[in-house]
Every structure is written in structure tokens, then in C-alpha cells.
């Protein structure tokens, strides 16, 4: 079984192809968030280098969120279009889940943190144990203070994600030696991890038609929030 996965949930754009338990190829680009211009070029180049066509792919996968609203829309739309073109199934994978999977069999609890703006992060927690990879807490939108406070109830924690660098000093100050940080090679989104998770889901029958795949935004966009605020202010003035 071959899986093509895309992750455009953050500033990182990534595409990968996995066949069974083998990563055939992966492209990662962390340079300006112009996913609409780059992701299909990356996919086409990856497929050409692997001497594969879209028809050779059995399952298509996308990181569905949380994350950048525009990025998620681009990634999901791209995967839906590819799957639709060859009538193949799709799998949606959580962005936080994918990042945690970058650290296989880590000894510590894994806490991905993605920048959600206004000093907030998208976060969850995961663990590897004798039964494999598990979610301990579901994705949430928390202030960094709330996130770190909740981690204080855990044992040793390893942080991964694009919000690590902006909050590293605060995390170290609050958690001290109980806080660890993923190395650069595993710190951000990787389509290879999304593909690996999608492979396991596909083997369990957790697939869907391309039309069913939707982004997981978690919260309303800034434009929607600003519109609601204006409507609320207008209502108060009446």
C-alpha cells in the first residue's frame, strides 16, 4: 500500500510517500508560507523522482488541523483533488498527532505546541507505551500559561512544534529540568509522520471518500471574530 501525505498546517510545507513500512521520499520546505504556489510543485517533483504517477497511490492523506486556516484549506483541497482524480480514499490526520509521531518511542510525554496567536497555542499530549502510540489529552486552544500549568501535573515532558522557540524560556523557567525540547530534525511538521499514521488508519479501515475530508479549525478565523465583535458593538449601540 502506498500513501501520499501532505502537511501545510503551518509555515512548513511537506509532502511524503510511504509504502507499507518504508518512507520512499519526503520533501520539507520551511521558507515563507506560500503553500498555494509550492505544494503541488513539491508533490509533482516528489512523484517524478520516485517514478510514480497519481494512479500508483492507494491512499491520500492530509494534516487536517488545527493550524493555519489558509494552510489547512490548501492542503485539504489538494488532497481531495488528487484523490478525486483517481477515485481513491483519503485519511485525515491531526496536525498535533503528526508532530508527536516525529518522536517514536520517546520516554517522556510528548506535548506539541503550535502558535495560535495572542499568546495561545494549539496543544495536546501523547505517549508511547507497550501498546504503541496513544493520545492522553485531546487538542485544545490554551494560553501558554494554561498549557505549561497543565504540564506541571505531568512527569517529564518533551515539547515539539513551531511555538517552542517563542515560549522556550518561559517553559524552562516554569518546568525546569522536567522540560525537554525536540531536536531541529523532529521539531516541526513532517508529512512522513502524517503518512505513517495514515497508513495505520487505512489498515484499520479508517478511510473516507474525498468529499468527506474537511479541515479541523478548532476556532473561528480572525476575520470571523472581528465581524462578530463589530456586530456585537453595533447591537449594543441600538
Question: Would you write up a description of this structure?
Answer:
This protein has 238 residues and is α/β, with parallel strands linked by helices. It has helices at residues 35-49, 69-86, 95-100, 144-151, 164-175, 191-203, 222-237; strands spanning 2-7, 13-19, 22-29, 59-65, 90-94, 109-117, 120-129, 132-143, 157-160, 179-181. A hairpin with a 2-residue loop joins strand 7 and strand 8. The longest helix has 18 residues, at 69-86. The relative contact order is 0.19. The mean pLDDT is 91.
Domains counted in the coordinates: how many?
Answer: 2
- Report the average pLDDT across residues: 91
Q: Using DSSP, what is the number of strands? A: 10
Name the assembly state: single chain
Major sheet size, sense and barrel closure = 5 strands, mixed
User: Hey, roughly how much beta strand do the residues contain?
Assistant: 25-35%
| CATH superfamily caption of the largest domain | ATPase, nucleotide binding domain
Return the CATH class of the largest domain.
Answer: Alpha Beta
Which percent range fits the helix content?
25-40%
Rg computed from alpha carbons, rounded to a whole number of angstroms: 18 Å
> Globular, elongated, flat, extended or rod-shaped: what is the shape?
globular
Determine the structural class based on helices, strands and strand pairing.
alpha/beta
Specify the number of helices: 7
Strand order of the largest sheet: 3-2-1-4-5
CATH architecture level-2 label of the largest domain: 2-Layer Sandwich
Give the ordered list of helices and strands.
Answer: EEEHEHEHEEEHEHEHH
Amino acid at each position: 500500500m502506498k500513501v501520499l501525505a501532505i502537511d501545510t498546517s503551518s509555515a512548513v510545507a511537506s509532502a511524503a510517500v510511504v509504502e507499507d513500512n518504508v518512507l520512499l521520499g519526503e520533501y520539507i520546505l520551511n521558507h515563507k508560507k506560500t503553500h498555494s504556489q509550492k505544494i503541488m510543485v513539491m508533490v509533482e517533483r516528489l512523484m517524478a523522482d520516485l517514478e510514480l504517477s497519481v494512479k500508483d497511490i492507494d491512499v491520500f492523506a492530509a494534516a487536517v488541523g488545527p493550524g493555519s486556516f489558509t494552510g489547512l484549506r490548501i492542503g485539504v483541497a489538494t488532497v481531495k483533488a488528487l484523490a478525486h482524480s483517481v477515485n481513491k480514499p483519503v485519511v485525515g490526520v491531526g496536525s498535533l498527532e503528526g508532530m508527536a509521531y516525529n518522536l517514536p518511542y520517546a520516554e517522556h510525554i510528548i506535548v506539541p505546541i503550535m502558535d495560535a496567536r495572542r499568546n495561545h497555542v494549539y496543544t495536546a499530549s501523547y505517549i508511547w507505551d507497550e501498546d504503541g502510540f496513544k493520545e492522553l489529552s485531546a487538542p485544545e486552544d490554551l494560553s501558554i500559561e494554561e498549557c505549561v500549568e497543565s504540564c506541571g501535573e505531568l512527569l517529564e515532558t518533551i515539547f515539539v512544534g513551531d511555538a517552542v522557540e517563542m515560549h522556550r524560556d518561559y517553559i524552562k523557567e516554569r518546568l525546569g529540568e522536567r522540560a525537554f525540547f525536540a531536536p531541529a530534525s523532529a521539531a516541526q511538521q513532517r508529512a512522513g509522520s502524517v503518512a505513517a499514521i495514515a497508513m495505520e488508519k487505512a489498515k484499520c479501515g479508517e478511510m473516507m471518500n474525498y468529499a468527506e475530508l474537511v479541515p479541523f479549525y478548532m476556532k473561528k478565523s480572525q476575520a470571523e471574530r472581528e465581524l462578530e465583535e463589530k456586530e456585537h458593538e453595533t447591537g449594543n449601540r441600538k
